[in-house]
Write a structure and sequence with these properties.
The chain is an alpha+beta fold and 260 residues long. The protein folds into two domains: 4-148, dinb family like domain (Four Helix Bundle (Hemerythrin (Met), subunit A), Up-down Bundle); 158-243, Nonspecific Lipid-transfer Protein, Chain A (2-Layer Sandwich), CATH 3.30.1050. Helices cover 47% and strands 8% of the residues. The chain contains nine helices and six strands. It has helices at 4-23, 42-61, 80-85, 90-109, 126-148, 158-167, 169-174, 212-219, 236-243, and strands at 116-117, 124-125, 186-190, 196-200, 207-211, 231-232. A four-stranded mixed beta sheet has the order 4-3-5-6. The chain has a two-stranded antiparallel ribbon with strand order 1-2. α1 packs antiparallel against α4 (90-109). The longest helix is centred in the middle third of the chain and has 23 residues, at 126-148. The protein starts with a helix and ends in a 17-residue tail after the last helix.
């Protein structure tokens, strides 16, 4: 029987290679385009992925006991390493990104999925750690593709991100200083292939349903829930969509509804 943890890493690598294939051969000018992430060009998104993949490798190998890097530049939007990477050519930047993620793959494959690893928030299992890297590649990839004018193609790898978005429900409240809502919740989504994915308590009156891509975009704060086709019951289900946060650290800026 195949190892689910190794399959997860296969999916992480596939997501990285997909994004690489969409961007790597685009012209230099496209890499200078602005993205929906304030202050970041397409190249800054890839520099961020490379920087954090390097940090993840250090954590996974035991070379570091916490996430490192990410110091903000003068305008408060980019890290110092992102700023310095702007002196790289496109080819140098892509080579850095590829080398960083290859090293991370080797480091993650050497771990057991149940190993506990430190990160920006509380320690997490290696499985959740790898899922978080997949989530970051996909969500930041959305920004990069948007800046490049490339329409994203989604896969059933979204099931990993949907899972992360669901299990971080309590954390999403806590990072805002709010009391977590403990009411039972049922989330039922349709993956890009048409397959069904669900989590929670099926008989709950609090329900979120719809396309997995919509839920994942909400959970990674790439879209406001009111701008999706998600269906949700009032109360705990809608409240969850208002606070959902699949990434570690403090709440992000999110995206305002287009109607505002």
């Amino acid at each position: 029987m195949s190892d689910p943890y190794q399959q997860l890493i296969d999916d992480l690598v596939a997501e990285q290679r997909y994004l690489d294939a969409q961007l790597a051969d685009l012209g230099d000018k496209v890499w200078q385009n602005d993205t929906p992430c304030r202050g970041w060009m397409v190249r800054d998104v890839i520099a961020h992925l490379a920087e954090v993949d390097e940090s993840a490798t250090n954590v996974a190998t035991g070379a570091a006991q916490t996430m490192s890097g990410g110091e903000r530049s003068e305008d408060g939007t980019r890290s110092a390493l992102q700023d310095s990477s702007r002196h790289m050519t496109r080819t140098q930047l892509v080579d850095w990104w590829r080398a960083a993620r290859d090293r991370m793959e080797v480091a993650l494959r050497s771990r057991d999925g149940r190993d506990r690893l430190p990160w920006a928030g509380p320690p997490m299992s290696a499985r959740s750690f790898a899922t978080a890297r997949l989530m970051e590649c996909w969500s930041h990839g959305l920004d990069a593709l948007d800046g490049a004018g490339v329409e994203p193609i989604h896969s059933d790898r979204l099931q990993h991100i949907a899972h992360l978005g669901f299990i971080t429900r309590q954390f999403a409240y806590q990072t805002r200083g709010m009391e977590p809502n403990s009411e039972p919740l049922w989330v039922e989504l349709t993956l890009p292939s048409g397959a069904s994915w669900s989590r929670g308590e099926e008989d709950s009156i609090n329900v979120v349903s719809g396309a997995a891509v919509d839920f994942c975009r909400v959970a990674t704060q790439r879209i406001h829930y009111k701008d999706t086709d998600l269906s949700f019951t009032p109360g705990a289900a809608e409240e969850f969509l208002q606070v959902a946060q699949a990434f570690a650290g403090p709440p992000g800026e999110g995206r305002p509804p287009r109607s505002d």
